[in-house]
Amino acid sequence: MILRILLTGTTLLLLTLVATVGAAGASGPKGVPISGLENVRAYAAAAQVDGRSYAVDGGRLYGGLNGAWEPLPAPRGVIVNAVAVDRVDSDIVYIGAANRHSVYVSHNGGKGWKEFSLDSKAIGGVTAVAFDAFNRLLYV
């Protein structure tokens, strides 16, 4: 139990650190208008590459460029709960499933997905993902 709490705290600290470092080093557009999306659960920008962004709204994944959003196909039956993007290559997108113990990766901007199952002892779905482009690590 203490180990689980320690690991959870460490994971949250790493996610906070990655988010802070990413925000401090970001270049390019500082704000992307999200018109048409109403209940954005997660947002990931690849501003250093080409300005493409990804957002989760209502369990669906959307891709956007210059404020124009389009729905992207998720794996069959997956409710998308979290999204992260590789800041070096915006075609590499990671999503976490709300209804499965899985993370999915796309190498073509969300057109196709490969599933990575997580430990089946975990309770609930994936609530957050963060990608560290420097160390090439995905935090779940």
Automatic annotation (TrEMBL):
Assigned keywords, A-Z:
Signal
Signal sequence span is 1-23
- The answer on whether this UniProt entry bears the keyword Transmembrane reads no
Residues in a coiled coil are none
Q: Which superkingdom, per the lineage? A: Bacteria
Name of the protein described by the UniProt record: Glycosyl hydrolase
Q: The organism's lineage?
A: Bacteria, Bacillati, Chloroflexota, Caldilineae, Caldilineales
